[in-house]
Every structure is written in structure tokens, then in C-alpha cells.
Amino acid sequence: MRLILLGPPGAGKGTQANFIKEKFNIPQISTGDMLRAAVKAGTPLGLEAKKVMDAGGLVSDDIIIGLVKDRLKQPDCANGYLFDGFPRTIPQADAMKDAGVAIDYVLEIDVPDESIVERMSGRRVHQSSGRTYHVKFNPPKVEGKDDVTGEELIQRDDDKEETVKKRLTVYHDQTEVLVGYYNKWAESGKPGAPKYRKISGVGPVET
Ligand code: AP5
Ligand code: ZN
């Protein structure tokens, strides 16, 4: 199974990815998690990316496309993959199409902007796994601790209200065009075209 999870910041891509990757036994390829790992490791890429991420902007297409192409060479992608937060621009989507990277489904998670800031302010993350909680909507079993490892949960640096608003603007300006892009491709029915499904991201996580 080869999937793209598309949706605004805080739509629940990472949250739903956790279920989907287990069900299909496929790796989650989150460009956001990959960048945060580079920031934590203090690599040159990480140092560069941190500035952009903290400002709520997008890291350059060349860097992201390079990262994903390398990741797809890993043996665990043979059985499929789940893209989370990628592609995020037309050049990123085109690069995958041109490289013949197959996609079975594009799942759009739809959440209105009004819900996003509340979700982000309550988000808590287990840094090394990317597992995500919410203090109110999806609390961990023990406050402040990851369910699996018991390790400390943190708040993301880019979850400040102004940064969230900037990220939402960037989503509407640069990423939302992919809704039309993939819908059009799906409707073309051409060989290799993905199926497109829009799903409401409001309501209980399990639903
Ligand atoms: P990235 O990490 O991809 O962030 P994002 O797309 O902004 O999405 P989020 O991770 O914030 O949200 P999510 O949809 O995963 O929601 P979650 O499940 O956590 O990217 C970060 C940055 O990296 C970007 O800003 C950019 O700078 C850079 N970057 C990454 N990829 C890039 C690319 N391809 N190109 C260029 N730059 C790139 O849920 C959010 C909260 O809501 C949680 O607390 C959760 O518990 C809660 N929640 C989830 N579902 C529900 C529900 N149904 N009801 C109530 N609460 C819920
Ligand atoms: Zn995420």
C-alpha cells in the first residue's frame, strides 16, 4: 500500500499515520519528523532547516526531494510507504511523478482552520518516535509521559500561536493546490493514477 496523507498543520496526519502504518506494515515517511531529527542531531541540514521551520515556512524543494528519494531506497519501503506531510508543493509532487514513485491513495484530512490553533497548543510529542498526544483530546496514560517508553513528552518549537497561523497561511498558499492536482490526476483514470478520498478530521481520533 502506497499512500499520501494530505492536510493542514494539525489535521491529524501524524496521529492517523500511527494506525495506518501498523495496519499495512509500512514505514511512515514524515518529512517533518526527518527534519526535526536533523535539527536534534545538529547536522548542517538541521541548522538550516530550524530557522525556516521556526518561522513556519517551507524548507527548499531540492532538499526535501533529495531526502525523500534517499529514504525510498531503504529496503523497508519495498512493501509500500505512507507519506506524511509530503509532497507539500507542486514541484515536490511533480518530482515524485517524474521519478515514477507509485501512489495508490491520496487521503485528504479536512479540518477547519478554527480548530487548528487549539489542537496545536495542546499537542505533546514523544521526540524520538514522533508519537503525538493532546492534553485534552488524546491524553497519554500518564501525564507528560509517552505510553510506550515512559519517556518525557515535549512541545514543538513551531507550535506557538503566531507560527501556527503562519503555517496555515503557507498551507493555503502553497500546499492546498495539491488537492486539485491529485483530484485531477485521480479523475483522469490514467494508468497509475491514485484514488482520492477526502475524510473529515473532526471527531474522535479512532473514527
Ligand atoms: P510537519 O511536521 O509536517 O508539520 P505539519 O504539516 O504542519 O503538520 P503537523 O505535524 O503540525 O500536524 P499533523 O497533521 O501531523 O497533526 P497531529 O497528528 O500531530 O512539518 C513541520 C515543518 O517542517 C513545516 O512547517 C516545514 O517547515 C517543514 N517541512 C516538513 N515537510 C516539508 C516539506 N515536504 N516541504 C517543505 N518543508 C517541510 O495532530 C495535531 C494535534 O491534534 C495533536 O495534539 C493531536 O493529538 C490532536 N488531534 C489529532 N486528531 C484529533 C482529533 N480527531 N480530534 C482532536 N484532536 C486531534
Ligand atoms: Zn505531523
CATH superfamily: P-loop containing nucleotide triphosphate hydrolases
In round numbers, the mean pLDDT is 95
Radius of gyration: 16 Å
**Based on the structure given, which CATH architecture is correct?**
3-Layer(aba) Sandwich
Q: Helical proportion?
A: 40-55%
Q: Identify the CATH class.
A: Alpha Beta
Envelope shape: globular
- CATH fold label: Rossmann fold
Strand content: 5-15%
Bound molecules: BIS(adenosine)-5'-pentaphosphate, zinc ion
> How many helices?
8
Summarize the biggest pleated sheet: 5 strands, parallel
How many separate structural domains? Answer: 1
What is the structural class?
A: alpha/beta
Uncertain residue segments: none
Lateral strand order in the biggest sheet:
2-3-1-4-7
Give an account of the 3D structure.
This protein has helices at residues 13-24, 31-41, 44-54, 61-72, 90-98, 113-121, 161-175, 177-188; strands at residues 2-6, 28-30, 81-84, 105-110, 123-125, 132-134, 195-200. Helix 2 crosses helix 3, helix 4 packs parallel to helix 5 and helix 6 (113-121) packs across helix 7. Helix content is 44%, strand content 14%. The protein contains 8 helices and 7 strands, in the order βαβαααβαβαββααβ. With 207 residues, it is an alpha/beta fold. It has one domain (2-200): P-loop containing nucleotide triphosphate hydrolases (Rossmann fold), CATH 3.40.50.300. Bound molecules: BIS(adenosine)-5'-pentaphosphate and zinc ion.
Annotation keywords:
Rossmann fold; globular; 7 strands; binds zinc ion; 8 helices; five-stranded parallel β-sheet; binds BIS(adenosine)-5'-pentaphosphate; 207 residues; single chain
